[in-house]
User: Fold this.
Amino acid sequence: MVRGRIVETEAYLGFEDPASHAYQGRRYAGNAAIYGRPGTWYVYRSYGIHWCANLVVGPVGVGAAVLIRALELDEGVDVARSRRGKVPDRALADGPGKLCQALGIDRALDGRQMRGGMVQVFSGASWPNLVGSRRIGISKAVDWPLRFLAPKS
DNA sequence: GCCAGGATCATCT
DNA sequence: GATGATCCTGGCA
Assistant:
């Protein structure tokens, strides 16, 4: 069991968001999961190398999702390390691709329900004074403040 | 420590 | 044929 705290996320709104895979209601074989019900995992390959994990949050058909960008592990560090290789603790899951590797997430999770599945997210402490900043690694709607960082522990 | 550049391939147009 | 919701390495300070 690997367990940790989500410390960084980004929101992708769907229809109206040019950076979203659901922009203007686009549909193709690879993105069906993003239109699923809230709590559905949407996993896709990025740059041909990495996996990125999103959790669908909007109503069915909207395509709104949250990208999990970074995690602070506090249990199962050894398991994560066996998948990630020899890296500093804080680098085990401090990026979308690394996070998926550390947790063993791949396309097999795409379209699955989060609840009762292999990978789950639980609500925890609230993030007071939450402020959005610019999203990273995209080329459209770069200024939209939809990136959220957890307060420092 | 910081930055720039290249890797790499499924999926879409 | 082009394009990424990224990561890692090597060079330089």
